[in-house]
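Work Package 3 (structural annotation) set out to generate three-dimensional models for the target panel prioritized at the project kickoff. During this period the team completed the workflow that converts sequence records into discrete structure tokens, so that structures can be stored uniformly alongside our sequence database. As a representative example, we reproduce one entry of 458 residues exactly as it appears in the project archive.
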Amino acid sequence: MRDARDRAVGGPVSFQVVLRSGRTELGRRIRWCHPATILGLVGLLLAAAGGRLGAQAMEEMKGPPTMAVFNLSFYGEHANSIQPGDTGLAVIATGVLRSELRRYPQFKVLDSSLTYDAVAKVEAAGPPCVRLDCARSIAMQLGARWVVTGRLSKLSNLIWYLFGQVTEVSTGKLLSDQELELKGISRDIVPKGAQSLSRRVAQAAGFLPLPPDTTPVAEASGSHLDVERVKSLLASAAEGQIPDLSGLDLSSLDLRGIDFRRAKLAGANLFSCDLTGAILADADLTGANLDGTTLRRADLRRAKLAHASLFATIVEEADLSGADLSETRIIGYLKRAKLAGAILRNANIGADPGNQSMGVMRAAFVGADLSGADLSGANLFKVDFSYARLTGANLRGADLSNGELVQTDFSNADLTDAKFAKADISGAIFKGARGLSQAHGINEAKNRDKAVFDEHME
């Protein structure tokens, strides 16, 4: 009977079944076996391995184990002062930590977008995800073996603390609880502290720490943020805390629809960003660089934009009602923008004489609403206010010479000492305008005969 079976499969077969997982090895040499029996033996070996192989073996078959690194939070309750950009250091530290841990081939760091989206989903349905059990639950859903959490704490401008915890997701066992004291200039010591923390995290997970990346820390961390870091910083701000991105480089990012409400972006570099539909209501953008940026339909109500630069910026249909743009440089496209009650005192909105070879580079407020806006002392040379509404606006001392003021509504505006030389005022409405008799060049303006004045001014 045995010979018949041997002939059926082509003769006696000798082989070895071996199962390995880490340092565990189970095996047996078998001289002959029917194919169906082979599968049965493999099943028996798996059952015998039990907990030694089980889920761990299956996980290793899928690839290297994963690590979920959550954003380091900023803690400044005991700091003697909070400076612009302090909270942004927690984002930089998180970026350095993730970058260093990605260098380990033995495990994979989950993409930050996965943890960000998971946290956002949890917080949309409940309280902020600030406890370890919440982070562990999310890490478990994402299939991570370890979860890394921590915070950056400020004591003073020269003394900081970096805390980090490594937890085994499946058991909840705390593998490491690190506390690093950092002393020195924050921009230098925080990224270096994150590098040191990464080595301790790897060691806690059971791997030999790698030497730090030879890339200069300033270059590795940088102040330039990617979209995920921006989202992380905004999401990591505790309830009632104002997200601080002051002085950071966000240039060329696609930030469409992101909620920056109340965020501090003073001095930030937003060059060539796409902020279409972004929410920046009450945001602090004082001195920010918005050159080449798209702000189409963005919500900038009551935003602080004093001394900011908006050169070649698209602000079409954006809402800047009540915003402060005093002494701001504006050369851009503001068609149908809402600037009711906005402050543009001494703003430099005049055409750029240095770019005339490329055509007239000027601000276009076609159809915009500037009712009640304060444009006193503003440079509006060659501005295009065609079909714009400036009812009740303050234009005392403003320079509107050579401007396109076709059918602009100046009703009840204050035009004392305003300049209109060579401006085209065809169809412009000056009903109820104050100080018109003290305005300069109004009688020499183009198409004055087609403008609408009060009867005594006809």
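The first helix runs from residue 2 to 8.
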